[in-house]
Amino acid sequence: MRKQHLARGAFALATLSGAGWAAAATYYVAPTGSDTGAGTQAAPWATFAKAQSAALPGDTVYFRGGAYVFHGGLNQCASMTDTVNVVTLNKSGQSGKTIRYWAYPGEKPVFDFSQMTDNCRVKGFNVTGSWIHLKGLEVTGAPQQPGNLLNNESWGVWNSGSNNTFEAIDTHHHMGPGMFIAKGSNNLVLNVDSHHNYDPYSKSGAGQNADGFGVHIGANQPGNVLRGCRAWANTDDGYDFINAGSVVTVENSWAWRHGYYPGTTTSIPAGNGNGFKVGGFGGAYQANAPQHIARFNVAFNNKASGFYANHHPAASYFYNNTGVNNRPDFNMLGVDASGAAVAQGILRNNLAWQGTLVSNVAGADVANNSWNLANVSVTSADFQGTSLDGWDAPRLPDGSLPQLPHLRLAAGSDLLDKGVNVGLPYSGAAPDLGAFEGSAPVTLFADAGPSMKVVQSGLTLNRTTQQMSGTIAFTNQSTTTYDGVLMLRLDALSDGVALANRSGSQGGAPTLTLSSTRLAPGQTVTFPLVFTNPSRVAIGYTPRLFAGQP
Ligand SMILES: [Ca+2]
Ligand SMILES: [Ca+2]
Ligand SMILES: [Ca+2]
């Protein structure tokens, strides 16, 4: 299915400033572009460096889809223990005027560092500026070299700036962490996936340093948040906040299958294998250690702990997390001022199931969790679905997490309303246990689009209602019968256009649902479409058909 032609960016947004009119500029970069061009949609540039040299605070740079393959960095390896930077972003935006480096809507630019042969460490993205917003980019392959065992990790995305947003980034297959915040305040890591990272040539041991997300900021660097992220199949940990001197918040994020060779269940000896490693200073006591925040997260199938205090000297907040089949699900091993092992953590409304439930919780501040409430038992009947597969399903159009029934509470579960109010939103009489509030049924949808022939009609204008109407028809060309709910989703619908007859929305895109439909091989289903389009723009969208079992 090809997206219809879109007339985007026809109107420049102008803002009034004290000095007069100043227009935010929009530039374009493409794999087939040239830095001698104008940076327009018709004559895009080729490089990040060229775009950065032109972009001013408030400007947007769109990267067209395709592969941007790097064969070397901005500098040479001065020694085998040097670091080569490839994409350095050292030009800052301003408050309210970030510099935006975004994927062009509906396209996927891929930044590939795997062909580099520089014989030292590599930072694929080296973000040292502030007020920068990266969105929709895929980043892969920051390498180590087989003949060089003098270093630890390379990095996919490395940050030392502040007030940056990393949104909807897919960072994977690096020989080191996918996303690494070394310094800085108020950075937001939103809806980022980091997976299949493995550092085979680290001097500290193969696999020892490839975390999905590392946040290792110093003191007085507050406000760093990870939200809506996923980490899986990384050889070390999913999320690692060791040596972080300021509070880190991780929420609504998932972690699974850490500590193994990526894509396998074979343990890698040096890989720690925790889902969420929330703090610690290498086992040492440190005064004024931050109380990190981990809430509404899910960890499962990790080799070691799902949620781990990692010898942290202070009690971090663990609220409404779900741990399943980890070893253990929650481990609150801390350290006190004398260097003795103690239990550290403030745990409320957490859910532990399968694997080893808890370690080192006696003495921590623990209440209203599944394992310490009388008259509560966790069984498969408590959940709408118990699958631990499919959590890497495609994200929704706005980058948010896929909606899955897995590990969501079922109606009638005794885990509903068994939590305690911790000042966070909830429904019903009280918070539930675990990461997902409420028991509203969630349908598991599969993408039925690839097996469909799609026919779109023309649109006709109703002069009375000023709405435009047409149809879209899907003919099942597979040998599979789709029985159940059929859902049409219109991704990347043109700005200013609305689907007037929508039945809902998913990830910011309008949906039209037909219940109890049977679509056998050779059969056709037709959806009516009614648009409102007050600005009379060209209507473009990407139609997606999903089939679900209610
Ligand atoms: Ca780690
Ligand atoms: Ca139960
Ligand atoms: Ca509730």
TrEMBL record:
The primary location reported for this protein is secreted
Do the record's keywords include Ribonucleoprotein?
no
Record's Gene3D superfamilies? Answer: Single-stranded right-handed beta-helix, Pectin lyase-like
Question: What cofactors does this protein use?
Answer: Ca(2+)
Compartments where located = Secreted
Q: Where is the Pel9A-like right handed beta-helix region domain?
A: 21-336
Q: Which InterPro entries match?
A: Pectin_lyas_fold, Pectin_lyase_fold/virulence, Pel9A-like_beta_helix, Polysaccharide_Lyase_9
SUPFAM superfamilies from the entry? Answer: Pectin lyase-like
State the UniProt keywords alphabetically. Answer: Calcium, Lyase, Metal-binding, Secreted, Signal
What span is annotated as the signal peptide, if there is one? Answer: 1-24
Q: Which family does it belong to?
A: Belongs to the polysaccharide lyase 9 family.
Q: What is the name of this protein?
A: Right-handed parallel beta-helix repeat-containing protein
The organism is Telluria mixta
Ranked from the top, the taxonomy reads: Bacteria, Pseudomonadati, Pseudomonadota, Betaproteobacteria, Burkholderiales
